[in-house]
Amino acid sequence: MKIVSKNIFLNDTEKLALNLLGKLLMHRLPEGDVVGKIVETEAYLSKNDPACHASRGKTRRNEAMFGHPGTAYVYLIYGMYYCFNVVTREKGIGEAVLIRALEPLEGIDYMCRRRGTADKLNLASGPGKLCQSMGITKDHNGIELTRGDLVILDAGEKPPYKTSPRIGISTARDKMLRFYITENPYVSAAAVSN
Q: Is 194 a domain residue?
């Protein structure tokens, strides 16, 4: 397996949200590598998408979203959970793909300790759980995802997928911008019923 090319992040954001399915997210930690397969994503667009943080322009909170493609945009929700996004398109556009869920592959003991559960299905089946189990924090905001300790790897997988409206948002809920691997038990709970 190799780290994905930087060029993949210049693609159309919807296309990238689909293409990230089956890729691996790896975090190299002192305890060892933690790896999960990306099984659920959502695209957030700069135009005609009021749910996108960039829709009202650049702020201190969303500044990383306008950065270089292939960098991380990490933000805090509800004052306690981090969400991890991959910045897309050209610098200055303000689009990203939210990584909603992972299938744990390596470092599962570490993930269980961080999440306080032995339930493998509950380790990374949602954006907050994903960040907690992978050890992703605000310190990762703006980092490049093709080098360093947090990277995306190409496993050569092109899994079957489904598309649905995004979940967990209050606006633009009708947009078909959520992608997930068909019948994968690790997608977020709300996705299972779709």
A: no
